[in-house]
Structure formats: structure tokens, C-alpha cells
Amino acid sequence: MTYSLEGQLARLRISPPRPPRIAARLWQHTCCEIFIARKGQSGYHEYNLAPSGEWASYAFARYREGVPLVGEKLDPRITVRSGGEKLELDAFIRVDRAALSLSLAAVVEDEHGALSYWALKHPPGKPDFHHPDAFAAQLDEVRN
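Predicted structure:
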């Protein structure tokens, strides 16, 4: 997965690089998020991916009923490239060969601490990346 952020990066709060590690509450600052569900199932996984290299992963049995996953083997191997007015964050996430629905999103913190919420698709009302309608990207099953 690759996320690109383009614009006046100096006007944003972007955490500096740190050693890769599991961290909490990354969504309270600039971070990229991916939600992965098997098509037709209520359970899903969430990854929070920070430009610092920190990350978090969660397993949800159903809408917003989840627990953190803490295995280091889940490490999404984040790499970040930044220059001028462009930041790119790459993450490698292993997924099943099943047909998947994805919710792709980002939280961006401006220089004053205000957050904006970006997604492929926002459901009606306040931003909610967990909402079933936010799972707008579809991947077909891998076939050999």
C-alpha cells in the first residue's frame, strides 16, 4: 500500500522518524489507515500507519468491537519518502487470498492541531472509517 500526501507540508504536523514500533492512539495525529474485511463478513482488521514509522493493528469482530493486535510479526514495514511538497508512505501488509473490501483513509493534522479526515468514501454524517459504507475498494480473490 502506498499513500501520497501532496501540498504545503510545512503547514502540517508530521511526526519525525522513529524506530519502528507498535504505538497507541496514532489516529490523533497525522496517520494513514487501512481497514480490511473479507467480503460478506462482519469482522475486519485495521492498521494505523504513522509517518514516524510507528504503527498499530486491531481486530474487530463487528462494527467498532475490537481489540489491539500486538504481534511484532504483523509489522507493516513502513518506509517514508519526503521531499518538497510530497510525502509518500509505503506499508507492506499481508492479506488472505480471499476477496476483500477495503476502507482507505487518512487523518491529517494541521499546524494548529486541527484534524481533517480523508477517505475514498465517507458515509453520511461525521467521518467514520469503520462504517460499512466506507469499505469502498474491492479486491477480487487471488487466483493462480
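Summary: The radius of gyration is 15 Å.
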